[in-house]
């Protein structure tokens, strides 16, 4: 894992695996280590976190096979007007929750997601 600090206090972390993503989610949200990136029920804990800890909680998810990213059918957003597209719903939820709720951008080799800001 390699960490880089970018402008405006946003932290960027390069990960090598989905297990690393699970560890980062666990650490950032103070949750037990679980398979957040592969288990939809575990990933939904991040939605619960947002609903319980945000002044103006927002969450949306949808699946579209005809979007501009054909291999990334899941669109997730914890913030209006900003979405993350993912290969699977749990991966998109993890990435967007880290980015929007914690200011942490993760990159994983293998193009599991795409962020549109």
Task: Describe how the helices and strands are arranged.
Elements (H helix, E strand, L loop, with lengths): L1 E4 L5 E5 L2 H12 L10 H14 L6 E4 L10 E6 L2 E5 L2 H14 L1 E5 L4 E4 L1
Parallel strand pairs: 2-6
Antiparallel strand pairs: 1-2, 3-4, 4-5, 5-7
Describe the fold and architecture.
The chain has 117 residues and is α+β, with helices and mostly antiparallel strands. 34% of the residues lie in helices and 28% in strands. It has 3 helices and 7 strands. The strands form 2 sheets. Strands 3-4-5-7 form a 4-stranded antiparallel sheet, with helices on one face. Strands 1-2-6 form a 3-stranded mixed sheet. Helix 1 (18-29) packs across helix 3 (89-102) and helix 2 (40-53) runs parallel beside helix 3 (89-102). The longest helix is centred in the middle third of the chain and has 14 residues, at 40-53. The mean pLDDT is 86.
């Amino acid at each position: 894992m390699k960490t880089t600090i970018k402008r405006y206090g946003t932290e960027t972390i390069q990960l090598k695996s989905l297990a690393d993503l699970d560890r980062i989610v666990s650490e950032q949200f103070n949750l037990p280590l679980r398979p957040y990136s592969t288990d939809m029920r575990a990933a939904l804990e991040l939605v619960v976190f947002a609903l319980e800890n945000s002044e103006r909680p927002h969450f949306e998810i949808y699946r579209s096979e005809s979007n501009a990213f054909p291999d990334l059918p899941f669109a997730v957003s914890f913030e209006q007007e900003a979405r993350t597209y993912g290969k699977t719903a749990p991966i998109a939820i993890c990435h967007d929750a880290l980015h929007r709720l914690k200011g942490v951008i993760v990159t994983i080799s293998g193009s599991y997601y795409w962020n549109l800001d």
